[in-house]
Amino acid sequence: MKKLGHLNRDIARVLASMGHTDSIVIADCGLPIPPGVECIDVSLQLGTPDFFAVLDSVMGDFKTERAVFASECLTANAPVAARASQFAAQGVAVDYVTHEEFKQRCRNAHAIIRTGECSPYANVILHSGVIF
């Protein structure tokens, strides 16, 4: 039995399969899942687990080079906007695109992790860095 890292076998599998610049999405419960993109649904009920719990768990096990947020979070979701600022302070490149562009970019993700989050624009595309 695994002792450290993700116990969710689907998340662990996807993270282990990713290479430099590949992407994974952490999404609120309302983000549409594009056809052909794997959805790892960890939602239990509205708000559980929340966006930040899942994001923190993934970030503990994933080297991130770039994070992409919907620009609408800057005015509609202060906690998500604050987290984006923290990424930048930690040396992770941060990009903002419209929510429509964000949904288009999700089509290229290895997987979308669907949380129970129910606040607007609580979504991020994480691009893999390298560990060497």
TrEMBL record:
Any one Gene Ontology BP term: D-ribose catabolic process
Keyword Iron (UniProt): no
Coiled coil: none
GO cellular component: cytosol
GO molecular function, one term: intramolecular lyase activity
Reactions mediated catalytically: beta-D-ribopyranose = beta-D-ribofuranose
Active site: H20 (proton donor)
Biological role stated in the UniProt entry: Catalyzes the interconversion of beta-pyran and beta-furan forms of D-ribose.
Subunit structure: Homodecamer.
HAMAP family tied to this protein: D_rib_pyranase
Name of protein: D-ribose pyranase
Gene: rbsD
